[in-house]
Amino acid sequence: MSDQNINELIEANPNHYEFKFQHYLKRGFEICNQFAIGFILFFLLFMLITGTVDLLPGMSDLINRIFITPVIGVGVYFVARNISRGNEHNFDQFWKGFQFLSPLILMSLIEAAVFLLLVSPILINGDISLYLEWFEEWQKTPLSVDSFPGFQTWYLFLLLPIVYLSIVWIYAPLLVIFYNMSAWDAMEASRKIIAKQWGIFALFYLLVSIISVSGVLFFGIGILYTLPLGACILYASFEDILDFYIKDEDEEEDLMEHLTDAFR
CA-to-CA distance for 177 and 186, rounded, in angstroms? Predict the structure, then answer.
């Protein structure tokens, strides 16, 4: 199905999809547990790769965020999709993100440019080097670092759009890899879907994020299981909601075919 068809289906369907909170949690556990060892090994390798890049001098964090994470990170969704649909799944599928290298990297660049534009008044208002030093310290010790330097209340109004966009673009990478959409069309389609129930999605994403990082409570190593678990839960929601649009279209096409056959 083309990106145009996906966008048309979303716009043409005024109905609200049902957000099945408990079903997504349950389905995510089922998907992850069917290939738990594979998911754990993949995320171990993923963390080793990003950790190695972090050791490089210079713009290592930027490389991870713009290039490494978007391309390799989507691998978990390929496996989750095959498990969910009862298809063959194997470890090689974790690296299929490289087949969508250009749109995934372009998507990351667009997001980075938009977010940078939104925070540009903060950067202009203060000392950029001071902010960069604070950010580096925050990455190392997020719980003990001092508050944001020169913080002013109006900064919050600039951060709200970033929070909003971060949520509405959640499905964009999945739309790229599963529906072969361009970067911007995928971001727009994701926005149209999630904006219909943004508040529920925000709570859902918060819960998924908590689940994903909860593994640190189990001697840290538990995160190798909870990270893919969170991804599988997110995939379960994506599959169900996209089916809401696509199956409705398929049912209409089947009905038209039956009516056509009846009058022949």
Answer: 10
pLDDT tens readout for residues 115-126: 989 888 877 766
pTM: 0.84
